[in-house]
């Protein structure tokens, strides 16, 4: 089974983040990543998604609307970055995800029939998928809210990372550590996921807090370059390749420190673990080092984050079309309008 994003949790330098410290700063958000979060978490007791009377999914709209306004009210300038065409190297990952969701859906239906409450939620979340309709409605809502969104040419997290590495954004927001491999100087995790969460399969609750991962601090603590961090990712497994079975973070770090090229990494896997990569690691390295991205200028950024919300269109879309409570939506729309009015008074230099 292909690795679903590299796990660098034991190597990355992280610290708890006060959202207030992001006030006035631009954060490029991996849109698909947060949509998956909202669709996984915001569900009915039987695990089904929230829907309007026409059967349209609305779980993501609820999360996108209320959570975005909460962050904007705290001064965060959000830019959502949507995936474009996936890399050909990601084909195996996509196929594995589809298979995993199909199996989870079958398990979910069985759990519902047997009344297994804990299993219901677990398998319902695992069956989460993003459709064209979900993406389209998310973009429509963001447009009415005056929140800028970008369509990346390929990987959304690569585009968000590029914006951060070039100083167009202060940080990239994603749960995936692949964002570090793409070169994001700062990565915010749990931006839209903070709060008290139940651990899967256990009657235990934990507090999930936002945290900042610093690329330079991570590289400094490990004594390696970003290129070698990419090699670690390749050994552990990324969205684009399987990892080497038996290689953990410590072994991977030791291996890259004694290597001078990706060829050495290939030889290490072959000699020490009798393993040959299913894709050329050189292609994976090149994808992380030189991803397909779009150039974004400061002028485009300034124009994008200065858009004003359209309260009446928000209310029509959320309430008339999708059945949300008008009083609550109108209340939050007023909060959004006030917050956007305050941020629009700030110059572009204060956002960088």
TrEMBL record:
UniProt binding sites for Mg(2+) 2: 176, 178, 239
EC number: 3.1.-.-
Transmembrane residue ranges: none
Binding site for Mg(2+) 1: 30, 83, 155, 157
SUPFAM superfamilies referenced in this protein's UniProt entry, alphabetically: 5' to 3' exonuclease, C-terminal subdomain, PIN domain-like
Record domain XPG-I: where: 143-224
Protein name, as recorded: Flap endonuclease 1
Organism in which the protein naturally occurs: Candidatus Micrarchaeum acidiphilum ARMAN-2
Taxonomic placement: Archaea, Candidatus Micrarchaeota, Candidatus Micrarchaeia, Candidatus Micrarchaeales, Candidatus Micrarchaeaceae
